[in-house]
Amino acid sequence: xxxxxxxxxxxxxxxxxxxxxxxxxxxxxxxxxxxxxxxxxxxxxxxxxxxxxxxxxxxxxxxxxxxxxxxxxxxxxxxxxxxxxxxxxxxxxxxxxxxxxxxxxxxxxxxxxxxxxxxxxxxxxxxxxxxxxxxxxxxxxxxxxxxxxxxxxxxxxxxxxxxxxxxxxxxxxxxxxxxxxxxxxxxxxxxxxxxxxxxxxxxxxxxxxxxxxxxxxxxxxxxxxxxxxxxxxxxxxxxxxxxxxxxxxxxxxxxxxxxxxxxxxxxxxxxxxxxxxxxxxxxxxxxxxxxxxxxxxxxxxxxxxxxxxxxxxxxxxxxxxxxxxxxxxxxxxxxxxxxxxxxxxxxxxxxxxxxxxxxxxxxxxxxxxxxxxxxxxxxxxxxxxxxxxxxxxxxxxxxxxxxxxxxxxxxxxxxxxxxxxxxxxxxxxxxxxxxxxxxxxxxxxxxxxxxxxxxxxxxxxxxxxxxxxxxxxxxxxxxxxxxxxxxxxxxxxxxxxxxxxxxxxxxxxxxxxxxxxxxxxxxxxxxxxxxxxxxxxxxxxxxxxxxxxxxxxxxxxxxxxxxxxxxxxxxxxxxxxxxxxxxxxxxxxxxxxxxxxxxxxxxxxxxxxxxxxxxxxxx
Length: 619
Description:
The chain is α+β, with helices and mostly antiparallel strands. Helix content is about 40%, strand content about 20%. The chain contains 16 helices and 18 strands. It has helices at about 5-15, 35-40, 60-80, 120-125, 145-155, 215-230, 275-285, 290-300, 305-315, 330-340, 360-370, 425-435, 475-515, 515-535, 540-550, 560-585, and strands spanning about 25-30, 105-110, 160-165, 170-180, 185-195, 205-210, 235-240, 250-255, 375-380, 380-385, 385-395, 405-410, 415, 445-455, 460, 470, 605-610, 615-619. Strand 3 and strand 4 (about 170-180) form a beta hairpin. Helix 6 packs across helix 11.
């Protein structure tokens, strides 16, 4: 069993929500086996019985391997003698047994809100049962990222996890070293103490030693970090891989691009059409309301007093507005749930959601991909099964480190989705429902980036891994298609302008190519006509005669004629381009300078937010 270093731990760290500009550091240090053994107090022993080990190579196997390597070298030498291209001979792979594991110390640190001192053991050392009763847009998937890393550490290395945390304004740092008693589901605390906080730091730092496979999962980890940098351009990510071999060291910084953060999602009440029987029973048990009328009004959205009275009247004679809500029987609760499913209610509002925003999405794409052109779109709130959702999309062309064809980036509640892409609604929409050629985009040759972010109080994941959103919800599929199409429409206009400029440049180049030849030919004709006019063998009209006299007097030369022809070509080219733009509906919008303030500057300001921009008024 292998996991991509602390993949779940990284998700956990990135998923926390705070009110500060995010700084997230992730360091992965490779630990050789001898160093790991010294950490756990284990003394290395020399092998006594070599044949006992999995990586033991018999004399026959060694002879066979050496013969194979000798043949490969011989073939390589022959090819070199014949002048053929020779591939560099790969170094023989060392035999690695099952016991030769790779160990890593993973440290994740942020500047978030921190954690209360007394809550840390239970937050990391106890796996709590999850529920679906709180209705709020949340980042992450299971809420188990750090716990899964701790359990993997306990299984693979047996070493505890170390947590340091401090809340804003605290003069101490909470330090806790613990592991988990898996059978009893309680934390096993090795050390829990308060330390001086001299630097007034706030946030959390988690350190764990695990077994893993950096070589296999390297690309996935970096791809995940890059996607996080796209969807959260207001955060700064620093990733380090540290090894004893300096050539293997990696340091990547994903810089912050803006200080405008999305609003914090707010908790909302349940929509009546989305509740089930268990949820109704739980709400009844926890409500402070006494009668059924008050319960319906205050525990659900979009149920006013008049609608609640109509619903109670429709439930039957055994229901009344003043009846005690705690006295409802199982049969009566089923009747309420059935009526909720059949009745008509207003759709819930999307005010409780916190999308990344079109402004941030555009900045993130530009910052990480450096595309030639990009278009973004943020849709209005829509509803499926009583849950509001918002779809945001971006489409880019060209860019750095982008492969030819369609490159799909998926996000759910601002968390990247890496796996099981084939069955996702975004992938199927991009591949099957968008006619890219209609928007002047070549889906096989162009470098196309498609970014789709879906936020909701309930993401309809499919499968136990929660890695993709099903294609069976028509409301979401339609919204995804519409958002991508809106981006493509914007790009089509930009592509038309670019094609117009390219055609104009090509047309000017073609015309300019013939100017010298045309100049020579016209000037030779004018000189011949001037000679005939001077000898009076042929008379010309007054206007032509004036021109021919200027040719004779060297007032019109090849140079002046060539200059005039060049000016004429530019004028005709401009008029043709203007006519083309008028016919195709393409207009050049006026461009104005904008002022971008340094993030380090200290100024009082007031932000005016729009779906596509943020206007900052300096005071």
